[in-house]
From TrEMBL:
Classification via InterPro entries: UCP010219
Protein's UniProt name: Uncharacterized protein DUF3159
Keyword line: Membrane, Transmembrane, Transmembrane helix
Membrane-spanning parts: 44-63, 70-87, 107-129, 150-168, 174-198
Pfam families per the UniProt record, alphabetical: DUF3159
Originating species: Nocardioides albertanoniae
Organism taxonomic ancestry: Bacteria, Bacillati, Actinomycetota, Actinomycetes, Propionibacteriales
Record's keyword annotation contains Transmembrane: yes
Length: 223
């Protein structure tokens, strides 16, 4: 297999590994259903039921497609928590508090992972490819993952910057629109850009993410 072929396989693996657009599309359905039901009925409990029913239906479909039960249950739990918060406060916009907090926390975690030289992009790809810590012993690959991980930080920061003011102003419809616009399109863009950053960070002779190169003895790992 040539280096170009290997990198083509790696690009496909990266997109599949991090969920692609399919999971992001599924995740937008319950919030949109919540807002639409709230607008039509004016009742938060109706919106809650609508979002939970659709979340459960999507979870069942994902489970039948072979997705891990824990991931399926976490998706439903996220919608349930968001709905319960909105019911508790009586504010429809609070349905999006979980999303706002999750993106802020994710940005922080990714920054910390880069600072400690365990960039999460490398961790996730390494786990899926069953490389354990082999990628960290490859200075070029470790550096590439660190650079590409900043793309994911930027993704979360963009969401916080958009969701925050909309939530503060109580614009529920705009929050739903932003939830759709900043889900699968942003995920797809992030996958593409992070892959390009990673690929261009590797020297031309590097065989790609599937084939970490051991660090020569006596050399220190690049940050």
């Amino acid at each position: 297999m040539t280096t170009t072929d290997r990198r083509s396989d790696d690009a496909e693996t990266l997109a599949d590994l991090l969920g692609g657009a399919r999971g992001a599309i599924d995740a937008t359905v319950p919030p949109v259903a919540f807002v639409l039901a709230w607008l039509v009925s004016g009742e938060l409990w109706v919106a809650t039921v609508a979002s939970l029913v659709l979340a459960a239906a999507i979870a069942l479909w994902q489970w039948r497609q072979g997705r891990k039960p824990r991931a399926v249950l976490l998706g439903v739990a996220g919608v349930a928590v968001a709905a319960m918060i909105a019911l508790r406060t009586g504010r429809a916009e609070d349905f999006f508090v979980v999303q706002l907090a999750a993106n802020a926390a994710s940005a922080l975690v990714w920054v910390v992972s880069i600072a400690f030289r365990w960039p999460l992009l490398g961790v996730v790809v390494g786990l899926v490819l069953r490389q354990r810590g082999a990628w960290r012993r490859d200075p070029a690959l470790a550096r590439g993952y660190a650079r590409a991980s900043w793309v994911w930080v930027a993704q979360y920061v963009v969401r916080v910057a958009v969701f925050g003011p909309l939530w503060w102003s109580g614009d529920v419809v705009a929050l739903a629109v932003a939830r759709v616009g900043l889900s699968w399109p942003l995920v797809a863009l992030c996958l593409l850009v992070s892959w390009l950053v990673l690929r261009r960070s590797l020297p031309p002779e590097h065989p790609g993410v599937r084939h970490p190169q051991s660090q020569p003895q006596g050399q220190s790992q690049a940050a």
